[in-house]
Amino acid sequence: VLRKKIAVLPGDGIGPEVCDEAIKVLEAVADRFGHQFEFETHLMGACAIDATGEPLPDKTLQGCFEADAILLGAIGDPKYDNNPAAKVRPEQGLLKLRKSLGLFANIRPVTAYDVLLEHSPLKNERVAGADMLIYRELTGGIYFGDKGRTEDGEGAYDHCTYDRSEIVRITHLAFQAATTRRNKLTLVDKANVLETSRLWREVVKEIAPEYPDVELDFLFVDNAAMQIILNPKQFDVILTENMFGDILSDEASVIAGSLGLLPSASVGNTVALFEPIHGSFPQGAGKKIANPIATILSAAMMLEHFGLQEEADLVKKAVHNALDKKVLTPELNATSPYTTEQVGNFIAYFVMHGIEVMPD
Ligand code: IPM
Ligand code: MN
């Protein structure tokens, strides 16, 4: 029996709806395997600003520190998007959470599901079989460097900095991941222009001999952006800095056919965080159309992180079954769409009983 305390940060928009379904699936896992998962919900994002004035209240951070893992829905609200200069923003909560918890590696698997190929905007034969894992550095680089305005207010700057230790720790994780997959690692950088990228290359090359089975190559980020679309199958594990990873992982997500399918894990030295890569989709909130699968697969990554491989595999199997049987929300099933809750129930029931019951 495993006991785990899970902090849940549902956030904004569709965040609470998709978290509910992931919790349902985790509860089914707990029932089936005799584990005990305790869930504690906290405020973060625009909802936290509305309630407390702060995007990441101390109480939330405290709850995260005390948990064994964090499940996050999504944050963001249009009232801030239209006003990028707002002093207090939901995104600050997420960035502070990453930094405070030391979540230095963001891991995003991108898989092309055969049954969904028709939904990919890319040619099917290009996408079929694509399966890559992106390791994005998450607590350094331009996101966290000095930023500001020049004295006269006419200029602005965002400094990009990295030090060796920040590169070393994620590089080991990425190499280790490659050894469990197809033994290929691609460092994406801009070493023809940026000094930070030259440091990344230097450090990654130094570490490479420790992983003799892994084939290492390098791509400039502009070329990588093109290669991900032209020939996604060439990639196994991609390692890259914070901002390049932000951009490339959204780009890579089109390969899967829907943003609503892609999970992520953010890991570091302490508690790890699991969240779908999609945003808060405010237009969809309350309409029961949000796809819960990305969050459910994020919960599966959490189970893997707990060392519960059998449980994680069962959740993934249940998700594949939902894809096969087209028990899917409208963006992936326009003819007979199911609600967020129906998709969650279908997956949770399969996890619990090993068989399916089609929703009415
Ligand atoms: C992401 C998001 C965040 C980021 C935003 C919300 C700050 O786009 O998790 O990829 O840029 O890291
Ligand atoms: Mn992003």
Automatic annotation (TrEMBL):
Stretches of the chain forming a coiled coil according to its record: none
PROSITE patterns (alphabetical): IDH_IMDH (PS00470)
Classification via SMART domains: Iso_dh
Domain Isopropylmalate dehydrogenase-like: 5-347
GO molecular function: 3-isopropylmalate dehydrogenase activity; magnesium ion binding; NAD binding
Pathway: Amino-acid biosynthesis; L-leucine biosynthesis; L-leucine from 3-methyl-2-oxobutanoate: step 3/4
Pfam families: Iso_dh
Binding site for Mg(2+): D222, D246, D250
Gene Ontology CC annotations of this record: cytosol
Binding site for substrate: R98, R108, R136, D222
Names of required cofactors: Mg(2+); Mn(2+)
Annotated catalysed reactions: (2R,3S)-3-isopropylmalate + NAD(+) = 4-methyl-2-oxopentanoate + CO2 + NADH
Cofactor binding note: Binds 1 Mg(2+) or Mn(2+) ion per subunit.
Transmembrane residue ranges: none
Alphabetized UniProt keyword annotations: Amino-acid biosynthesis, Branched-chain amino acid biosynthesis, Cytoplasm, Leucine biosynthesis, Magnesium, Manganese, Metal-binding, NAD, Oxidoreductase
EC code(s) of this entry: 1.1.1.85
Location, primary (coarse class): cytoplasm
InterPro entries listed in its UniProt record: IsoCit/isopropylmalate_DH_CS (IPR019818), IsoPropMal-DH-like_dom (IPR024084), Isopropylmalate_DH (IPR004429)
Localization (cell): Cytoplasm
Residue numbers marked as site, Important for catalysis: Y143, K190
Gene Ontology annotations of biological process type: L-leucine biosynthetic process
PANTHER family in UniProt: 3-ISOPROPYLMALATE DEHYDROGENASE (PTHR42979)
Family: Belongs to the isocitrate and isopropylmalate dehydrogenases family. LeuB type 1 subfamily.
Quaternary organization: Homodimer.
Function statement: Catalyzes the oxidation of 3-carboxy-2-hydroxy-4-methylpentanoate (3-isopropylmalate) to 3-carboxy-4-methyl-2-oxopentanoate. The product decarboxylates to 4-methyl-2 oxopentanoate.
Protein name (Swiss-Prot/TrEMBL): 3-isopropylmalate dehydrogenase
Record organism: Pontibacter qinzhouensis
